Amino acid sequence: MVRRSVSSFFCIAAVAILLAGTSGKPATLRQAADHIHLLVGAAVQPGLLSQSAYSETVSREFNMVEPENATKWRAIRPDQATFDFHEGDEIVRYAQAHAMKVRGHCLVWDHYNPDWLAQGHFTPAQLSDLMKEHITTVMKHYAGQIFAWDVVNEALNEKGEFKDSIWYNQPGIVLPKNSNYVEQAFRWAREADTQALLFYNEAEGEGMNRKSDAIYDLMKKFKKQGVPIDGVGLQLHISRLDYDTAAVAANIKRLTALGLQVHITELDVSLPVDVDGHAQDADIHKQAGLYRAVIEACLQSARCTAIQTWGFTDKYSWIGTHSQHTRGAALPFDRNYKPKPAYDAMLEAIANAESSHQ
Ligand code: XIL
């Protein structure tokens, strides 16, 4: 009797799952996103893919991954003579096994560089050679495997001016006349892999402000001058619950009107947390509203083609160390991989989208 009721329970459960799968109501972010040809992704760490809760969640919920650190200079270039691709390759193998796309991050940045580069006191001519060699070797290694690259990351300061960096002015690379290092990086990237989509990725210029105006002007100039660029990555590390998402929608509209794609690349919404890492319920609900609004902002523009979170579980998020553990709980899954209200909001927003993407 008991056995029968248990087996009939499983029968009913199986039928329910089947129905959920066929009733048109998507059960996962990945299903919902596939349905409207949207990319939904997460930044991942190769060392964690052997944990089943981690890797099962990634392949169930996302159709795209991005190495959080594994394809940055510090990971790939332990010394000047070496290109070590093993961490990035691990992510590519995982993605291929689960029919997912891989977004590459990042080829030129003033952070997360190895000491031999950052403190190497290279001449402009040497830096120029190093940048070209790096872009060329890495993109050729991943050609056909990484479909889009953040070629340059965070080149501007909050005023929208070029940031001091080894690539720009300390001492900067040797440049052709009337060019700048960002433009040069994109030209080398297109030469290295003609198929990959090339993105400029930025922080804190997602809404409408001085910085996003400067990004817009730069992109407009690049389009006019024929600099090979396909899109802009908007990071969207949100740390205010009154964040203006209407301004993000407006910014996406003007960028896509230039003929560029937009990817939301590093979405997280950090909250104040107590010593145990717990946030307040009210904040967790407001956070869900922001996740929903960001997704809706992207889906208003047909050329906003990807939405990615920076990690996906609160168990592994950069926000903790970044904020000396005063903030956290920034992602759509909690520390036990349980979906939070932010997850439900993402799923609903994607499932409700009528327009088809890309
Ligand atoms: C962060 C990673 O999450 C950390 O693990 C690492 O220590 C530093 O970099 N903007 C970016 C990302 O473009 O590469 C950064 O990632 C977060 C901010």
- Note the run of SSEs as H and E: HHEHEHHEHHEHEHEEHEEHEHEH
The average pLDDT value, as a whole number, equals 93
Question: What is the structural class?
Answer: alpha/beta
Question: Can you tell me the residue ranges where pLDDT is under 50 for at least 5 consecutive residues?
Answer: 1-19
Beta-strand share of residues:
15-25%
Write down the overall geometry.
globular
Question: What ligands are attached or bound here?
Answer: (3S,4R)-3-hydroxy-2-oxopiperidin-4-yl beta-D-xylopyranoside
Question: What's the arrangement of strands in the largest beta sheet?
Answer: 1-2-3-4-5-6-8-10
Percentage of residues in helical conformation? 40-55%
In DSSP terms (H or I, runs of 4 or more residues), the helix count works out at 13
Q: How would you sum up the major sheet?
A: 8 strands, parallel, barrel
CA radius of gyration is: 21 Å
Counting DSSP E segments of at least 2 residues, the number of strands comes to 11
Distance between the termini: 54 Å
Q: What do you see in this structure?
A:
The protein has 358 residues and is of the alpha/beta class. Helix content is 42%, strand content 15%. It has an eight-stranded parallel beta barrel, surrounded by six helices. The protein has a two-stranded antiparallel sheet with strand order 9-11. α10 (245-257) packs parallel to α11 and α11 (281-299) runs parallel beside α13. The radius of gyration is 21 Å and the shape is globular. The structure holds (3S,4R)-3-hydroxy-2-oxopiperidin-4-yl beta-D-xylopyranoside (XIL). Residues 68-69, 112, 153, 203, 235, 266, 318 line the site of (3S,4R)-3-hydroxy-2-oxopiperidin-4-yl beta-D-xylopyranoside (XIL).
